[in-house]
Amino acid sequence: MNPREAATSIPANRAPGGPTTRVAPVAPADARSAELVALRGVRKSYNLGRPNEAEVLHGIDLEIGRGEFVALIGPSGSGKSTLLNLLGLLERPTAGSYRLLGQETATLDERTLTLRRREALGFVFQFHHLLPAFSALENVTLPALMRDGRVGAAARERAAALLAEVGLADALAKRPGELSGGMQQRVAIARALVHAPPLVLADEPTGNLDRHSSDEVFALMRRMHAEQRTAFLVVTHDPRLAERCDRIVELVDGRIVGEGG
Questions:
Q1: pLDDT in tens, 142-200
Q2: φ and ψ of 35, to 5 deg
Q3: Are 195 and 10 in contact (CB under 8 A)?
Q4: What is the pLDDT of residue 238?
Q5: Rounded Cα distance, 116 and 101, in Å
């Protein structure tokens, strides 16, 4: 997944933020009660038509419902990053169908894909990719700045409320270099949620943290999932964390070999 393209193309929520630190949740829905993501027979190949053509995803079928919290596991080289790129609308499948919020993405042009990514998806990465010269608050409001060329009062209020929700009410003015790794990842989670997306894609979000910080960040994502009713797809190599998800999808050699919950 390309963090620059993903992180800088996400807008802040236009809804005005309130004066309190509690952020209004997305309308609640039972897990799997409504289709959010549906992949059917998805394949992905690189170097098409060349001697070194290689197919890395082989007929993927996957559904994620609104409000789910799903782990994606598998060994290195299994195709997890490629699958996340497809789900994040950063790449297109070679074959098959990808429906996001009920809309077939294959028919969308690049501009519409970008708009859909901005509206529907949030991204959290193993390395937080915060701008070092920006404060925590400025990093969380960055999507609004990228979209509108300015940060309005409503965007600042929502960003501040989210930072308070993730336990950083006293760190709004601090820059990433003044924060611990776990705190930096909390800022990244707030940034991913600032526009209230129905789905957050988290690529090894605890992979660069020690065990204590990893547990804290994972617990935070679970809490925000419960409060905001945002679906999460979390790529992880940590079996302890995977077991704490609602469902586990295992990918091996470009194929889903197991699902459990």
A1: 888 877 788 889 999 999 999 998 889 999 999 999 998 888 988 998 999 888 889 99
A2: -65, 130
A3: yes
A4: 86
A5: 10
Residue 14's Cβ-count burial label (10 Å; 0-12, 13-18, 19+) is middle
Give the least confident one: 5-14, 47-56, 103-112: 5-14
Please name the amino acid found at residue 96: G
Closest by Cα among 127, 136, 152 to 11: 152
Radius of gyration of the chain (CA): 18
Which of residues 129 and 251 earns the better pLDDT score? Answer: 251
Where would I find the beta strands (DSSP E) of the chain? Answer: 35-46, 54-65, 69-73, 95-100, 103-104, 121-125, 199-203, 231-235, 247-252, 255-260
Average of per-residue pLDDT values in the chain = 84
State the CB neighbour count (10 A cutoff) for residue 46: 13
Phi, psi of 69, deg, nearest 5: -130, 105
Burial of 40 (0-12, 13-18, 19+ CB in 10 A): middle
